[in-house]
Amino acid sequence: MKAAVFRGLGKPLSIETVADPKPEAGKVVLKVEACGICGSDLHATDDGVFLQAPGTILGHEFSGEVVDAGRSKIKRGTRATAVPINPCGHCAMCREGRGILCTQNKITGLALDVPGAYAQYVKVNADQLIKLPDSVGFEEGAMVEPLAVGLHAVDEAAFPIGARVLIIGAGPIGLSVTAFARLRGASRVVVSEKAAARREAAEAFGATDTIDPSAVANLGEAFADTAGGPPDVIFDCVGVPGMLQASIDLSRPRGTIVTVGVCMKEDKLIPISAILKELRVQFILGYVDRDFPKVLDFLGQGLIDAKRMLTDNVGFDRLPKAFEALRKPSGQIKVLVRPNA
């Protein structure tokens, strides 16, 4: 099969012919119909603690059709996505349905020995496979994973109905948080985003208002003018140094800050500024297992239009350049790889 292979720092993804996956017990093989390019994939190819080994096949946001069910009872032809984790299955975190926190977990597409879906076929755990509703297409199916991150972040925030919410950043995760913040009962959901195209997408995902932070002198004052008071909850969906301290400064006393964006660099903050407000800070990693079927239920009911974040589909011929372009995105939001298009 063809796959896009990471060959090292500073090198574009290499389109190569590699061995087809074969399912051992407990595994199935999907023909990949769509796979999202995630910010984590970019981090995985940058210098730092998250750098993956040369030879890694990325891709953990995907959907497709079962072509080899192995020894499972799953039917060939089943349209599905999958929770892209490979935990031990028996530790405390696994028993709680939080396999992504298992110390032995490897994420599909973010480990050399667990190839991902920048490929024509991908091998996944049969018990992590989730059937797509008839009303959900492969494009939406490939966006279940980032949507699940947004759902998990909103649920962990545990804000009351009627809360005022500030979301910083309107990439795929910021948009996912926006959608679920509205569905979970926030009265005002204000998205701060510099890119006009992403602000427009935020409105489509349920934002009550948007702010261009480069066009206002004070984001906190702009939020209060728009929402009628300070934010009860702030979601950092950017993940750059300085953003946590900025969120602390923006928060009201006894507010909640949820860090969803992945910051890969050393950061600094002034703890007393959070102590004096008695703030709650919640860090988010991924999702719990039950989030995937919940997201699919929302999609199946038409409560979220995931395609509103889709900006491009690319085949292997365009993938290397499209991948590199996302290191400094302009109008892109979610780009999908179509290995079998």
Characterize the structure shown.
- The protein is of the alpha/beta class.
- The protein has 2 domains: 2-131 and 305-337, Medium-chain alcohol dehydrogenases, catalytic domain (Quinone Oxidoreductase, Chain A, domain 1, Alpha-Beta Complex); 147-283, NAD(P)-binding Rossmann-like Domain (Rossmann fold, 3-Layer(aba) Sandwich), CATH 3.40.50.
- It is 26% helix and 21% strand.
- The protein has 11 helices and 15 strands.
- Strands 3, 4, 5, 6, 7, 14 and 15 form a 7-stranded mixed sheet that branches.
- Helix 4 packs across helix 10.
- It is globular and about 55 Å long.
- The mean pLDDT is 96.
CATH superfamily of the largest domain: Medium-chain alcohol dehydrogenases, catalytic domain
User: Low-confidence parts, pLDDT < 50 over ≥5 residues?
Assistant: none
Please provide the ordered H/E string of secondary-structure elements: EEEHEEHEEHHEHEHEHEHEHEHEHE
Q: Between the first and last Cα atoms, what is the distance in angstroms?
A: 13 Å
* Secondary structure: helix percent: 25-40%
Molecular shape: globular
How many helices? Answer: 11
Q: Which architecture of the largest domain would the CATH scheme give at its second level? A: Alpha-Beta Complex
Number of DSSP strand runs: 15
Beta-strand percentage? 15-25%
> From the alpha-carbon coordinates, what is the Rg to the nearest angstrom?
20 Å
Structural class: alpha/beta
Mean pLDDT equals: 96
CATH class of the largest domain: Alpha Beta
- Total discrete domains: 2
